[in-house]
Design a protein that fits this description.
The complex is a heterodimer. Chain A is an alpha/beta fold. Helices cover 29% and strands 29% of the residues of chain A. In chain A, a hairpin with a 2-residue loop joins strand 4 and strand 5. In chain A, helix 3 packs across helix 4, helix 3 runs parallel beside helix 5 and helix 4 packs across helix 5. The longest helix of chain A has 14 residues. Chain A starts with a strand and ends in a 7-residue tail after the last helix. The model of chain A has no long low-confidence stretch (mean pLDDT 88). By secondary structure, chain B is mainly alpha-helical. In chain B, 77% of the residues lie in helices and 0% in strands. The relative contact order of chain B is 0.14. The chains are: A alpha/beta, B mainly alpha. At the A-B interface, helix 2 and helix 3 of A face helix 1 and helix 5 of B.
Chain lengths: 298, 219
Amino acid sequence: MIEIEGLAKTYGRGARAAQALRGVDLRIPSGMFGLLGPNGAGKTTLMRILAGIVHPSRGAVRVAGHDLAESGRRAAKAVLGYLPQELGMYPELTAAQFVDYMAILKGLEDPRRRARRVAEVLEMVALQDSAHRKIKGFSGGMKRRVGIAQALLNDPRVLIVDEPTAGLDPEERIRFRNLLVRLAADRTVILSTHIVEDIGQTCRDIAVLAKGRVVFRGSPAELANAAAGRVWTASTDRPVEPEEGLTIVSMLHLPEGVQYRLVGPAGPAASGFSAAEPARPGLEDGYVWLMKGGEPPA
Amino acid sequence: MNGAALKYSWLTYRRDPLWFPPAFLALFAVILLILPDPGARYSIARAYLGFIVPLVGGILAAYGVLDDPALELRFSTPVRAGEILLARVGLILAVQMVCALVFQLFAAALGIDLSPLGNLLRVQLVWFLPTLALAALGTAGSLAGAQTSMGAFLAGAAWLVQLLMNSWLRLNARSVFLFLGVIAPGHPDLIVNQLMLLAGSVVLLLVSWALLRRPERYL
């Protein structure tokens, strides 16, 4: 369980100050939790605060009962695993050596116990056969799995993963998502991403962050419902520039013309689309509606 | 810090900069070999220990902490700031120590007498204290400026300025003169100078430790 109250973070001072978080309140229970938001929304800052790397300017955070203030930070770090967005590694080390080193940094000092745990976590991420290969020869997905393996070393009660599927091919993305869901069976897993599909496929509980504030909290279905009655599909025989307020979610060139999926407060007829039909909203539609300033569901 | 941690400290340090200390060691060893004059040989040996070892140590230390690809992961572990400093800067000092000792053995094998610098302990202080001071300056500079080049510049500039102004510093600022031990080994204020260098190094390392407790500046 994670409890966040009135969390704010400002980088810099005076005229150059930038507010990354502006009063975030969240309670995150066990299971898979999705944090969605555009680039620059403050997701990575929030993840780094939860990981005990960045100090908040204001507010309180408790991770698995440990206060993230100075006194409880080491204890909180001991019960969490973290996979950063930019996963830097030592390319000359093998996967087993890298995870072993991280185990030492996490305080697993007994060599036999450490070796056993390293083997266990590498098996959990299906890398046991590549354990003694150098990381520099790994694919992006394999590196991410090594990253998850090191995050699992201390059997964390909270696992924080920041944009873990960026740059992965579809097969690796699916494998990685499934791994996270498996791990969420007995712990809190916070998945931060701007890829809506990743959230829709893995989380029952999500929050949307925009400009440093939580603008939505609920289930993916509730977020999708935010756009109910505001999603249309429309076809034209030539490309049309939709009027302001109407957002193109997707566009498909067909032999008979162009098919659009549109989200907006007004019907697309006003924009010159003759044959527009209401469509059932999806998660992406709800997200786009919210980001365009639409009302979240009550 | 146990053996495995030391091994990984070594393995995870970027390889390229670690070639510099043995490269300089080899260069000065070759120079010693080709110089016939005993006086010139002594001067070269003294220059390597008193000037080159500290410079290389200071510049490498500037890269020691921040030039780490897994810095964010390291910060997410419960490792303390002091332990990071010890592992990363300590490694540089250890490499410089090995180079200085190997060089002294080589010089002794060639019959070069380093006793004008003092007894065995004093010879070690001739290279160790300036190396520690410049390493501390390089580390503190890179952490204060949040960039490695800042620390390397500060260490290099301090070395150069002190070298160019050595006559003035010897007379007017003996206590902070990095090279008093090698230029004037019999100076009456040498002990004070050595204590001041040690104290200054400790202060700079404490500043580095305080800076490293706020890791967000380095991500």
